[in-house]
Model the fold of this input.
Amino acid sequence: MAKLRIRIFPDPDLRVKADKVRSVGPAERELLADMALAMYLSQGVGLAATQVGVSRSLIVIDVGQGLLKLINPVIIKKEGFQFLDEGCLSVPGECIRIKRAKTVTVNFINENGELSRIKGEGLLARAIQHEIDHLSGKLIIDHLNPIRKLLKKAKGCRRI
Ligand code: ZN
Done:
């Protein structure tokens, strides 16, 4: 069983803005491992610490290219656009078409405390942008405009 409980909208924890992580040690590595477990058990492709009630800037992602653990992720470059349906572990049943950058370059700290950089495209870029939204308290439903709110409802999209 996962030790962490994924918060479900409208849980106020999902609206809390994450603080930067100041140092990386065993507690942070254990939290990242627990977050990865919770993500896999829920069959998601990404999870932010704010989704498990921890207001710290940590995310895990696995879009099928291996597990990524990002601490203090910051997008430094966005290129292109993609429009795809997106779900969220914290907003069950919703599937919302969201415009995202096609490619993002991200600076982050890895679990050894080292400054790192990754460039992701496609689903990986989308997952990174989705999880970084979570760290600022933003959810997929916030991307809806009033007209699309009426037209939404789709089935079977990836839950990030
Ligand atoms: Zn989400």
